[in-house]
Specification:
572 residues, alpha/beta, 9-stranded parallel beta sheet, 4-stranded parallel beta sheet, 20 helices, 47% helix
Length: 572
């Protein structure tokens, strides 16, 4: 450190025989203030993602300007610099700030990627501040590039998620309402915790090209493993007369042809409430919920039924992996999990399925048998999720017996025949276990659940009436602002009434169903509300106009969904 004219310290880093000074020798505090002044802090939902801590002056100035609800992700690429600062500079204001998430390379760098992917949503992206401590990008060029890749990867994932949700919004909500009738004679995943021998292997069967190589070997695992079929793999298992214990499905628009064979209609189905209704109708066996919508979580919580934590990873096979973790399997085996091409082939049976943007998203990755293999952007997301998940879990033996495709780093590579010889030593019947289990809700409990479901009708009506009132109040305030005759008192009264309406709406369980529906309508408007101007009247008008859009979307959703709801309520 060097003394400066204003009594502060300037930090100097030596790297590769070069010296880099991180602060001004004259007025480092003023320098930090000027640096922070370049950013906008009046926006809502601000998150700061910063590369480099230095001696803390720059990030401290940032924290002074941020609101209390801001989020800060601070990444330090050099542990030696951090340890020096920790021992020589008081940075307790940074470390103890609840807004700050601190990440140090070689200590918790993996957590940086995981937390960003978990917390970044489409609302945050427009008001992000992505920055670096001055000079850090020149000292740590490779680390800075890696940092930016992680940030933009998290942003891209958030954009994909909202685009998917917008595309599927109508279908998701229609499926949710129609599938409510299946709650009566169903179970949920928490009921199986502790009921399956931990040493029993779970074999997750995906439908990658390599499944053709070892699918027949599975016959030796029947009754000695929990054979978990992804919906896409079912037809291949049936073709080879493989007996499997359960199916898993998550997609709202999954092709129903995957489960058209009547032989699978009574096999237990692990599913989500948003799963394709036609597929759920076709299936006649026990349904087991492993994740609920916000509405479903709230409903089950009222009856002291709680789902375990869950992260799907985006695909049906990663969802199966998460379910196996929830059920406390200690040995989880993948087959058919190629996540890569076999020539041009994408799925078992020589099937070639194309996706949008496929050519641009191709990339070579490590192959399971050495060398490289071609993958594509959706598989890369699943591959990265699996690798991060494996790193994050303890005491779980993850085995990749795929015998082809991409290498899942962190997994143990084995042939399926070796897995069966080593791990499939005890008999177990999932169907016997399920047959001895009652449904989640007793008849008395379900009568109360039914009352909750029937109450959606009344809540729809209440939401519609409150939305009408909100539109009237918002338009009155906007008119007052435009005419420059707002008295302040009347405006404040109307704003309090709107706030009361919004709080009422958010408390309605049915709002959690409608919230998904309206995302398709209001997503672009909601993004703009984060970016506020200096003009308070304009900010107020923008916020009120978006409120009107939301109210109208709620009313539109209720009108379109009411016939679906009424048909469902007649069947519960």
């Amino acid at each position: 450190e060097l003394d400066t004219r204003d009594g502060n310290k300037a930090l100097v880093i030596e790297k590769d025989n070069n010296e880099y000074r991180l602060n001004s020798l004259y007025k480092p505090l003023k320098e930090a203030e000027k640096w922070a002044d370049q950013y906008e802090f009046q926006n809502l939902n601000i998150s700061v993602i910063m590369f480099g801590t230095g001696n803390g002056l720059f990030i401290s100035e940032m924290l002074k300007r941020l609101k209390q609800d801001a989020k800060v992700y601070l990444y330090e690429p050099d542990i030696s610099v951090f340890l020096y600062i920790l021992n020589n500079v008081d940075i307790s204001n940074i470390i103890c700030d609840a807004r700050v998430n601190l990440f140090i390379k070689n200590i918790n760098q993996d957590r940086f990627k995981l937390l960003l992917q978990k917390e970044t949503d489409w609302m945050m992206i427009t008001s992000q501040i992505i920055c670096n401590h001055p000079v850090y990008d020149k000292i740590y060029t490779d680390e800075f590039e890696e940092f930016l890749n992680i940030v933009y990867s998290a942003n891209n994932l958030a954009k994909v998620n909202i685009d998917t949700e917008r595309y599927l919004a109508d279908t998701l909500v229609n499926n949710t309402i129609k599938n409510l009738k299946f709650i009566k004679e169903s179970n949920y995943v928490s009921e199986f915790i502790g009921k399956i021998p931990e040493e029993l292997p779970a074999i997750i069967v995906a439908a990658g090209p390599s499944l053709d190589k070892n699918i027949d070997e599975l016959k030796r695992a029947e009754g000695k493993a929990f054979i978990f079929a992804t919906d896409t793999s079912v037809k291949y298992l049936l073709k080879h007369d493989i007996k499997f214990d359960a199916i898993i499905t998550i997609d709202a628009k999954k092709a129903i042809g995957h489960l058209k064979d009547e032989r699978c209609h009574n096999i237990p189905l692990f599913c989500v409430i948003e799963a394709r209704n036609q597929m759920m109708e076709m299936h006649k066996g026990r349904k087991i919920w492993f994740r609920g919508s916000v509405y479903m979580y709230g409903l089950y919580n009222k009856f002291n039924r709680f789902f375990p934590s869950y992260n799907s990873g985006g695909s049906v096979s990663t969802a199966a992996f998460s379910v196996c973790l929830s059920m406390n399997f200690k040995n989880i085996v993948f087959i058919g999990q190629d996540l890569a091409y076999d020539g041009e082939v994408t799925h078992a049976g020589g099937v070639v399925k194309k996706i949008i943007g496929e050519k641009k998203g191709k990339e070579q990755v490590d192959a399971i048998d050495g060398g490289k293999v071609w993958s594509r952007y959706d598989w890369l997301i699943y591959l990265e999720w699996l690798e991060n998940s494996i790193r994050d879990i303890k005491g779980i033996n993850v085995i990749d017996a795929t015998e082809g495709g991409a290498l899942i780093h962190g997994s143990k590579v084995m042939k399926l025949s070796e897995v069966i010889d080593q791990y499939c030593n005890n008999k177990f019947s999932f169907s016997n276990l399920l047959g001895s289990m009652p449904y989640t809700f007793t008849d008395d409990e379900y009568s109360k659940v039914r009352e909750e479901l029937l109450d959606i009708r009344k809540e729809f009506s209440d939401i519609k009436n409150k939305s009408k009132e909100g539109i009237k109040l918002a338009n009155r305030i906007i008119k007052s602002i435009n005419n420059k005759n707002n008295t302040g008192k009347n405006e404040s009264k109307d704003l309090k009434r709107i706030d009361k309406i919004n709080k009422f709406l958010e408390k309605q369980a049915a709002y959690d169903i409608l919230d998904i529906y309206i995302s398709n309508i209001v997503v672009k408007d909601l993004v703009t509300v984060n970016n506020l101007s200096e003009d308070q009247d304009e900010n107020m008008k923008k916020t009120l106009e978006i409120s009107i859009t939301i109210y109208k979307a709620l009313m539109d959703g209720i009108e379109k969904l009411t016939p679906v709801l009424e048909e469902t309520l007649e069947q519960i």
